[in-house]
Amino acid sequence: LQTDFGLQVTYDEDKVIMVAVPSSYFGATCGLCGNFNEDTEDEAMVPNGGHRAPDETRLGDSWKVGDVPGCSAGCGDECPVCDTARVQAYRGDRYCGVIARAGGPFRKCHRVIHPEPFLQDCAFDACHYRGHRDTVHGVDVETWRTAEFCSLSCPPHSHYELCGSPCQPTCRTPSIPAACTDSPCSEGCFCDPGYVLSGSDCVPHSECGCEYGGRYYQRDTEFYPSCRERCRCGTNGAVTCQEAFCGAHEECRMEDGVLGCHPTGYGRLVVSGDPHYVTFDGRTFNIPGSCTYVLARLCEPAPRLVNFTVLVEHEAGSPSDPVIMKRVMVSIHGYTITMEREQRWEVNSERYTLPLVTEDNKLRIGQEGNNIVLHTSAGVRVLYNAATFLLITVPDVYRGRLCGLGGDYDGDPTDDFRLPTGALAGTTQEFVTFWKVPQKDGACSDGCDDGVCSECDVSDAASYSRNGSCGIIRDAEGPFQECHPRVSPVEYFTHCVHDVCVARGDRGALCHALQAYTAACQAAGAAVKPWRTKEFC
C-alpha cells in the first residue's frame, strides 16, 4: 500500500509486516514501532503515560486495539523456553548465520541495516519454530535460497525472483506507471512472460476479466452492481446482466464488503462437555457412547446448495472422566478437513500449521484465541476449541434440508429425532444408534459400561449449583449477564452441573464448562466480562 504522503505498508499475509514513513514524521509517531526519534532508549513507551512499559506483555497490552474472542495477553506458564544456549545453536550457518556472514549474500545490506537484531530474531524464532523467513528491502541482495534451503514454491504461471519489481502488470493496468519504477525491488513470486495479474492469479491477456462501474472483476465471477441486478463477467471482458431475485431465506445486503444475496440468518449446532448436544432447532440430549457419528449433512439437495458432511468421534474416558470429543471431520468443496484434539489440522490427509487458505479460496482455516475456526465459501462455519466445545453454524438456505444428530433445522425441535425413513425415533438411543458410522474394527461403545451411566447425587448437584461453581453461568449479576438474552444459560448450567458432578467436583470440568459457554456467547456476538483469575481456571 502506497499513499501520496509517503506512507508505505508491506504485508506478506504470513510473517512479515513492514511500515515505512518519510522523515517528515520524525519524532511524531507512537505505537509498538516507537517514536522515530533515533533514540533507541525510549522505544517501549505506553500511550498517554510517557513512561516505559516494564515488559513486552504489558507493552503489547497497552497498545491493544480491542478484544478478540479468546485473545489472551501473554502465554502465562506455557511460554516456550529457549534459553541463550539453545538460541546460540541457531546463529550458525545451517540456520540464521547467513544473515550476518561477512562474505554472505546480504553483505551489501549490512552497512544500511545492521544485521544483529535480525540475526537475533531469526535465531529466537528458529529455536521455537524450526525456521523463519526474513525480508530485506532497498539493497542488492545476492541469491541465498536453494532447492534444499528455504525454497519458495510459486502458484501456477509464476516464478521466483530475488529482486522483482513491486509494480507488476495487471489486467487493469497492463503497462507499469513511470512513478513505480523508482520503488525498491522485492523478493517473491512474479508472473511469467505473457501473463498478467488478475486479482492474485497470473493469467494470459486473453483470460482477463471485466471492468464494470469503475471496478475490476475476474473472469467467470458473478457480482451484484445493485440489489436489482446480477451480472457475470464472461470472455473478452463481456459483462451480461439480468434482473436479480434472492432465494428463500436470503436477502440482498452488503456483507464483508460484498453486495449480494446473503442468508437472512444462521442456525447453530453445539456440542459441549460430556457430549451434550443442542440441535439447530434447540433440542437437547446427551451421548455417552464412544463411537463416530454423523453430526450434520445435506439430505435434501437443491440448486446452488453446497453438499457437506460433518462427523464427530468420541473418546471414552475413565469412569470418573467424561466422554470427550476426540476428532471432528468436515467434508466440503471437495476437501476433507480433520481436526483432532491437541493436534495440527489436516486437509486431505496432509498436516498444516495455521493459518491456511486453499488455492481456490473456498476454505479459510485459522486460530482465533483458544478456538480453531474453519470458514467456507458456502457459509458453513466450524469452531472447535480442540477439546470440549464445537459450534457448527449454517446459513438459513439450509433450513429443512439437513439431517444427522443436529436435526433437520426446520424450526421445530419436536421432529429432530426423525430418521431418513421418515419415522421418528422412539428413544434417544435409537436415534443416536442410527447415525453411528460403522467402524473398521467395530471397537466402540454405545454407552456406559453395563448400561449404568454416572449419576449425580442430588445433594452434590446442589453444591455445584452455587455461584462459586456452575451458578456463575446463570448469575444475573455475573460475568455472563449480557449474554443471557442471546444464548440461554439454562442448558449450559445444567450441563455444567452434570459434568462437574460426574467428575466429583474436578475444577478442570468446571473450567471447561465455563469456557464452552464463553465460546457460545462470543460466537453469538455477546460481551463476556473477565471470569478467569490466576487462582481460578
UniProtKB/TrEMBL annotation:
Give a GO molecular function annotation for the protein: extracellular matrix structural constituent
InterPro entries with a match to the protein in the record = Alpha-tectorin, Ser_inhib-like_sf, TIL_dom, TILa_dom, VWF/SSPO/ZAN-like_Cys-rich_dom, VWF_type-D
User: From which domain of life does this come?
Assistant: Eukaryota
Asked if GTP-binding is a keyword of the record, the answer is no
Q: Which UniProt keywords apply?
A: Disulfide bond, Glycoprotein, Membrane, Signal
Does the keyword Membrane feature in the UniProt annotation? yes
Cell compartment(s), UniProt = Membrane
Q: What residue ranges are annotated as transmembrane? A: none
What is the predominant subcellular site recorded for this chain? membrane
Q: Name one Pfam family in it.
A: TIL
Q: Where is the VWFD domain?
A: 1-72, 267-445
User: Where is it found, in Gene Ontology cellular component terms?
Assistant: extracellular matrix; membrane
Q: Which PANTHER family match?
A: ALPHA-TECTORIN (PTHR46160:SF3), ALPHA-TECTORIN-RELATED (PTHR46160)
Q: What is this protein called?
A: FCGBP protein
Gene behind the chain: Fcgbp_0
